[in-house]
Every structure is written in structure tokens, then in C-alpha cells.
Amino acid sequence: MTSTAVPTQAQPKQAPPAPERRKNWAPYALITGAVLVLLLGMGYPVGWQIVTSFQKYGALQQLGGKAPDFVWFDNYIAIAQNPTFWEVTFRSVLFCLVTAFVTVVVGVLMALLMTKVPAAFRFILQIALLLAWAMPVIAAMTVWIWLFDRRKGVINYLINLIPGVDIGNFNWIGTTPLLFFIVASIIITWMSVPFVAFSAYAGLTQVSGEVLEAAQLDGAGAFQRFQHIMYPVLKPVIAIVLLLNLIWDLRVFAQITLLQDAGPKSTDYDLLGTYIYKTGVAGMDFGGGAAMSIFVLAITIALSWFYVRSLIKEETQ
Prior knowledge:
This protein is mainly alpha-helical.
């Protein structure tokens, strides 16, 4: 009697246990440090502004003669009922929108120019932009005020050289608020264009030259190449520089103050930065000035939220 051996099934091999992944704490430490620096650097000033905006805080309180009294929302109600404040707010928002848009357009055009010119001319252009960007505000404003001076200004001199034109000692800064803010917009655009140009040029270096050449051979014009090839690459850069310029131009202060020192000092020539300074510091109404500052902070957060929301959408996609 023979017995047959039953083959035993091979036991599956067990996979070795996966090695334990050690959590990298370095990114969290770096973010924590940045957040702490931000809170220490900005937390106290913002907190002081918020508390002061609910107080009656004037010259007496500033000198320590009397503790400030809490008036809660009275400062906010006062600025809400102040028609001059809303005129200045509308003017400031319109000014920052126009100036930021013009700055981005000119900056992108300058970046496109740098991609087309020879290397030597591009180097000279980049040095000129860098010098314009690095010039201190006071020094730059001294030059610009001299250029638009009504008695010895270069602008009036050159215009008077045109045959048949005689504007005399025309006052560019003090004639009308419109001319004042056109001059201010030109100055601020000149100061901000280098940042936009360098940022956009860095983005354009990521565009494939072979793709552009192939599109040109296929008959695509310059605008079509920019719209369908360059713009998708530049879109994130344009978004962030436009947002930054909107925030900077909304809070502009030094340029407007120096122009007002050389010309009119009426509230018709004010933007939010100068109006808040005149109300809070010069007018010794620190509570009202703080409430206006919180309002500007809210506008800044609202402008930033559109960009943050687009970033969140990209992350989820």
C-alpha cells in the first residue's frame, strides 16, 4: 500500500515592517519663529491701535495728565458721519487702483523690453532701474519737486521751448487736486516700476524660447504669443505685484506729505495716510486716528483676501 504525499501550500512571505518615519520638525520651527517675530513686531502696535480706537485719547492723555476714557464705538460713529473722511477714502482707493494698474502695465512692458534688447543695453537698463528703486524717498522727492517747480522747474522750461507754447510759471502742484494727484501718481509709478519690472523679467526667463519660436513660425503675432504663452507664466507674478502695489499705494504717505510741503495743504489734496496723520498726530485726536487706521487695515485685509483665496483654490486643485 503506497501513500501519496500531500503537497503543502507555500506560506506567503510577510513584508518587512515599514521603517518608522521620523517627523521633520524643522519647517514647524521655522514657521513658529517667523510667526513669533511677526507677533512681537506688529502685535503690540496693532493691539494698541485697536484699544485706542475705543478710547477718548487726546493731548491730555498723551501727556499723562489723565487716563483715557473708553467711549467704545463713538470714534467709529464719528468717522462714519464725517463726509470729508469718505471723500478722502474714495480718493485714496481710486488713486491706488489707477496707480497700481499703471505701475504693473509699465513694469511688464519694461520686462518685455529687457527680453528683446541686446545684453549690453539690457544691463544698462537694469542698472538704471536698480538705481531708481534704491534712491531714498526724500532724495527722489527733492528731484521731482525741483522738476515740477513753477519758477525754475525743468518741466515748465522744456514746455516753454515748444514753438507757440507759453505756459509761464505754471503751478503743477497747487493749481487743482487732479493735477496734484497726476504728479503724485507719476512719481509713485516711477518709484515702483523697477520692482514690477524685475519680478516680471524673472518670470519671463521661465518661458521656453523654443515654444515662442514655434508659435511665431505658426503665424502667431506678438500679442497672441504674450496672451497664450507668456501671460499664463506671468499670471502668479502679476497677481502678487499688483496686490503689493495696491497695498503700498493705499498707504502712501511720504510722497504726498512732501508734495504738500511744497504746495497746498488743504484736505482736498489728502489721501488716507496724510489725513490720518493730520487727524491723529497733528490734531491730537489719537482715538479718531486709531479708528481710521483700523479702517485702513480692514481695507488692506479685504484686498489681500482675494489673493489668499486664489492661493487656497490652487492648493485644493
